[in-house]
Design brief:
The structure holds two protein chains of two kinds. Chain A is of the alpha+beta class. In chain A, about 40% of the residues lie in helices and about 20% in strands. In chain A, helix 2 packs across helix 3. The longest helix of chain A is centred in the last third of the chain and has 23 residues. Helix content of chain B is about 35%, strand content about 35%. Chain B has four helices and twelve strands. In chain B, helix 3 runs antiparallel to helix 4. Chain B starts with a strand and ends in an 11-residue tail after the last strand. Classes of the chains: A alpha+beta, B alpha+beta. At the A-B interface, strand 3 and helix 2 of A face helix 1 of B. Chain B: Component of the proteasome complex. Chain B: Belongs to the peptidase T1B family.
């Protein structure tokens, strides 16, 4: 096996591209990121590993704007993310320049995935070590979308998804608890999913909400704390309700 | 025969441009919008070769937007003007853009400003500027009537005086003008001055 993992352009006998799979390992080590699509709101929530005391946390934004109506969060190698995000931002403007229309979410996802794929089929380069969650509203139909790409260059649309650390547990939670939501309910669902694997508290989460009319809004720490408190209260109430009924019968 | 001119007021800047789209002896339309809004607080009035004008101003607009996404904050007016001049200068000795530009912007700590950028890439920060045959009349009127710190009504009055001069004294005078303003509340269309009504909807 060791002979087939050095160069990206070499298949192994059983059909694996090991470099791509190792890139996926890098993603699995990255911070947890969750995306949830509601009817009129789309939410991205990313785990914030503890910031060193002397670091200015504002310089480390994990959820970024690609255009007025598109945002992205990722898990994996942050330096690779910078490069990919820069190329995507240029493409968003370039598309507007040539066809006078903003990109659709699907278009820019396909572009980013295409870039990631190119780096799995060239000599002398390695794949991008990150998976992205891309959210946005279609510029004309207003339909909300959530897409995911990964280092192999595949992409697909989701109602809710997670990537990075413990993404399997988060996805299980989402599969069990997903329902069509809107507004604040979508935010709460995304945060509840992330809180399954992340320590509770505003300083451990970065949350951003996108709506058709107001674009991307990053939530302040205080807001996040307030919603976390609501979620905890709801959880406690649900626990209490579970214990109460047997006595009433 | 195109005219673009602009001036700085108390806490705003105004740019006015004619709105005729001409090809040799034919007037294609009289409601062409030649003042592009670059971002929330910048606008750019341009005159010159039609294709170059559209291409170059759109290119600058998209690059100004890209800067904002990459860096999280918008360009200052001075930076945008210098970037624009740089693009003109780079293309000058290869494939020049035949576009004259008056860029106006409002920056929070600086206030309103206007930049004169001509097609051979000169850049001047000015209080009043004008391009085209209309500039002969515009500059003379502004030299006579312009004062620092005019309020909007006074500035628009001056703009109207200039338009009147251009209409009456220039042999092939453009009939219609568009006026746009930028202040702390942003860049927006202020008014049209039409002596010939073309289509009911302003140029796309």
């Amino acid at each position: 096996m060791a002979r087939y993992d050095r160069a990206i352009t070499v298949f192994s006998p059983d059909g694996h591209l090991f470099q791509v799979e190792y890139a996926l390992e890098a993603v699995r080590k990255g911070n947890a990121a969750v995306g949830v699509r509601g009817t009129d709101t789309i939410v991205l929530a990313v785990e914030k590993k503890s910031t060193p005391k002397l670091q200015d946390s504002r310089s480390v934004r994990k959820i970024v704007n690609l255009d007025n109506h598109i945002a992205l969060a990722c898990a994996g190698l942050k330096a690779d993310a910078r490069v990919l995000i820069n190329r995507a931002r240029i493409e968003c403007q370039s598309h507007k320049l040539t066809v006078e229309d903003p990109v659709t979410v699907e278009y820019i996802t396909r572009y980013i995935a295409g870039l990631q794929q190119k780096y799995t089929q060239s000599g002398g380069v390695r794949p991008f070590g990150l998976s992205t969650l891309i959210i946005g509203f279609d510029p004309y139909s207003g339909v909300p979308s959530l897409y995911q790409t990964d280092p192999s260059g595949t992409f697909s649309a989701w109602k809710a998804n997670a990537t990075g650390r413990n993404s399997n547990s988060i996805r299980e939670f989402l599969e069990k608890n997903y329902k069509e939501t809107s507004g604040q309910e979508t935010v709460k669902l995304a945060m509840r999913a992330l809180l399954e694997v992340v320590e509770s508290g505003g300083k451990n989460l970065e949350v951003a909400v996108m709506t058709k009319d107001h674009g991307l809004r990053q939530l302040e720490e205080a807001e996040i704390d307030a919603i976390v408190a609501e979620i905890d209260a709801e959880k406690a109430a649900a626990e209490a309700a579970k214990k109460a009924p047997p006595k009433e019968t | 025969m195109e005219s673009v001119f602009g001036l700085v007021g108390k806490d705003f800047a105004i740019v006015a441009a004619d709105s005729s789209a001409v090809h040799s002896i034919l007037v294609h339309k009289t409601n062409e919008d030649k003042i592009m809004i670059l971002d929330s607080h910048k606008l750019m009035g341009a005159s010159g070769e039609t294709g170059d004008r559209a291409q170059f101003t759109e290119y600058i607009q998209k690059n100004v937007a890209l800067y904002q996404f990459r860096n999280g904050i918008p360009l200052t007016t001075a930076a945008a003007a210098n970037f624009t001049r740089g693009e003109l200068a780079t293309a000058l000795r290869k494939n020049p853009y035949m576009v004259n530009i008056i860029m106006a912007g409002y920056d929070k700590d600086i206030g309103p400003s206007i930049y004169f950028i001509d097609y051979i890439a000169s850049l001047h920060k000015l209080d009043k500027a004008a391009f085209g045959y209309g500039s002969y009349f515009a500059l003379s009127m502004m030299d006579r009537h312009y004062r620092k710190d005019m309020i909007v009504e006074e500035a628009i009055d001056l703009v109207d005086k200039i338009i009147m001069e251009i209409r009456s004294r220039l042999v092939v005078a453009p009939p219609n003008f568009v006026i746009k303003i930028v202040d702390k509340d942003g860049a927006r269309e202020y008014a049209w001055r039409e002596s010939i009504k073309d289509a009911p909807v302003p140029g796309v």
